[in-house]
What does this fold into?
Amino acid sequence: MLNRKPFRNRTIQRFLQAKGARRQFVLTALLATIALPLLLQPSAAIAQNAAVNYPNKPIRIIAPWPPGGANDILAREIAIRLGTATKQSVFVENRGGSNGSIGAEAVARAVPDGYTIMVHSVTSHATNPAIYPQLHYDTERDFQVVSLITAIPQIIVVNPAFPVKTLEEMVAMAKAQPSKISYASYGNGSPGHLAGELFKATTKTDMVHVPYKGGGAALIDTMAGHVPVYFASIATVMQQVKSGKLRALAVTSAKRSLLLPDVPTVDEALGIKGYELSATYGVFVPAKTPPEIVANLHDRVVAILKAPDFQRRLESEGADGTLPTTPEQGNAFLKAEVVKFARIVRESGAKGD
It folds into this structure.
């Protein structure tokens, strides 16, 4: 026997009982009740299809530093390989300034669909809240780490005409002539800047910081003799050191570089234990990027990091191998770096622009 229970939907009951204009009003409400779930269903399906079909259009990698430095080199190496893997156009957009915060802000505000990603120094990213307290984004809340990439040591180099042969001689000169020696870095709050300030605090010397907008500009001026000392990313100055156009005094890592085995660490050169600062790099996306797209991008990035040709390329730039991580591990590392470099900035007195 058929179930003869009455309709329980009150909107339908009112429609059946209403007349004239009242009936038209109730009909509109009824259609909205029926149509809304139908309208919402395709949205979820579209989002799911977007994740399944990712990527199906060009991808933009924002490198928040000018061309020529380590960050730019890493971004372009990843862009080439990601383009090959996805069969999509992957292009690098350099947005330098304010220790990477200008480019980072652009990524934080981008549509979180996986088509705008960032290759950036985790070290600089973590430093920015301490250096620039008025940031228009939150370093931890507004970004998702896809994976870490690598760690690249800093290196202390001088113009060959500068009258010091060793780091010990440079420290002696700096103590004899306070505030007379200037040193370049590739930006306020950059790993090079922090390495320099940490060096000053450790050796109790006073040198004048000269920040540049990127490693390329700092390199040019150091080679020209406009500034005698440069706390650089080893990737930026590797070829100039090998060719004798710059003299390397020490690396800031805990161990010597495999590519520059004759260059001592700061610890070895001065007998100071515990001095160490390398720049760690990572791949980021906006925080609200769908988990399926983050996972897709993560798998592709990790495959690139594990490829022997990519590892050899990084080693040729002085990197300490690759650091593939899960997104969760990357986020935890970033959080720890924020705490670590807030302390270094506070103790060194490093300031932004």
